[in-house]
Amino acid sequence: MNFFLLSLIKTGLVAFVLLTTLAYLQWIERKVLAHIQLRPGPYRVGPHGLLQPLADVVKLATKEGVIPGGANVFFFLFAPFLAVTLALTSISVIPFGPEIEVFGVKTNMELTGVNIGVLFILALSSLGVYGIAIGGWASNSKYSLMGGLRSSAQMISYELPMSLAIAAPLLIVNTLNFRDMVNAQSGYWLGVIPKWNVFAGPFPQFFSFLIFLIAAFAETNRVPFDLPEAESELVSGFHTEYSSLGFAAFFMAEYANMITVCSVATLLYLGGWQPLWPSSLGSDFLAPLIHFAAAGMLFYHGGQTVKSRTWDRFSFPAFGVIFLLVGALFLVPVLKPILIPLFWFVGKVGILLFIFIWIRGTLPRFRYDQLMRFAWTFLFPVAIANLLITGLLVALQS
């Protein structure tokens, strides 16, 4: 197969999956928050609310886009475009799995492989603040300007501990290439303990992993660090004056950044697509077992005709069949080298995304002075100490 044709197919596939994921990630978040708060969440549009993202897209696309009086029109329109472009570009250097063979052509499960993938991600994340800051300034609104200023200070402050947290595992793997990082984390101690950086010696990067996650919450403007929006103080912060596709672009950029930071955390600390235990002990069968178990639960609940809602009697068995088919795909020898690593990578990223949502449903928002004090007086010194200890032990080991 032609290299350019294969690259075009990969680009289209990744774009379709990413955009679909972004649409349904907000549905998942609303459902998880609803269960935390003991309410049903969206369920009216389609079975179990599965068509709610489509309804939201139609609503936002057909809604009138209002430009406030006195706003700088060019920068007002440019800001959400810049934010979503930078957020979506980051995914291009994220590897989702090992090298595979498609129709006799070997290719990597990523859009493009660069030897400085970590620096590329850091560069794009540092530029991401411009979209929010420009949007807040160009809106000609005090609420928006305050949100943009808060975002600038917050993202710059938390980029420092995040960069220091990332530098610590780099000392262990000695590479800036994401694929080489994952390969360096392959293997097991005593045959069962994975050699992921979060467990790796000479100084396990568990603290570095926690620092990275905390800084990621601030970088993506998520609760408890969503001060640039702060509905109780700033209406909606930097995007108060945005509606229609402008608001949708900022909304999409936030979720795309969540996926990016969770993917980077998976590659840096959790072994990427490396399984939790060796395939010789049956790790390859976990994916089909999960899908078959989910299918069994769906068939069981769909068959409870007395307790089930009318729609569930049809939708549950239909989804059960889908889970059965997907689970069967993991057992196909030709597809296993592709689907099994992808399952482990997506599973780890999904768990981290669930933590993001879980934190939003459980923690209150910080005050702004608490946010800045936490970054400079605690997180930054701890990140420096973690980096110094890691560097010292790596030097002594070598």
Describe this structure in words.
This protein has 398 residues and is mainly alpha-helical. The chain is 65% helix and 4% strand. It contains 13 helices and 4 strands. The strands form 2 sheets. The chain has a two-stranded antiparallel ribbon with strand order 1-2. Strands 3-4 form a two-stranded antiparallel sheet. It is globular. The mean pLDDT is 89.
Over all CA atoms, what is the radius of gyration?
22 Å
User: How much strand?
Assistant: under 5%
Distance between the termini: 45 Å
* Strand line-up of the largest beta sheet: 1-2
Mean pLDDT across every amino acid position: 89
Structure annotation, total helices? 13
Low-pLDDT stretches: none
Helical fraction: 55-70%
Major sheet: size, sense and barrel closure? 2 strands, antiparallel
The secondary-structure class comes to mainly alpha
